[in-house]
Amino acid sequence: MTLTPIELSASVIRLQQGGTIHAGRRPTDCGQDGWQLTAFHAKTDADVHADHWEVHPEAEELVCCLIGKIRLYLGPERPGQQVEEIRLTAGTAAIVPRGRWHRIELDIPSDIMTVTLPRGSQLERRADGEATGLVTTGRR
CATH number for the domain including 14? Predict the structure, then answer.
């Protein structure tokens, strides 16, 4: 068997049930079974959809800053609570709890890696004029 290098920034890696790993160019190339590892270079906040909140209702998510500096924001767990800000620098990571709304902003261009189950993920645009606070709409 000949092994060939995988370009992480151009691939989606699926860690599948039963211990196999599959790499593809798009999430659909790998099927829906198992965990999804994604690594990418982000130059601007647009590359990390900083204008949206994201949630993964079926699994936790590992967010790793491989190179650079990023801010990971976690939405409040309950109404009236504040948004949490976690600063990640090169070589650090955080685990976003299942079902917790979150988003990323860059301090500088960064290489980021995430691992989560791809099923059921949702995005919601941040409210107009919202700084780092999450507007609670009852859906969170």
Answer: 2.60.120.10
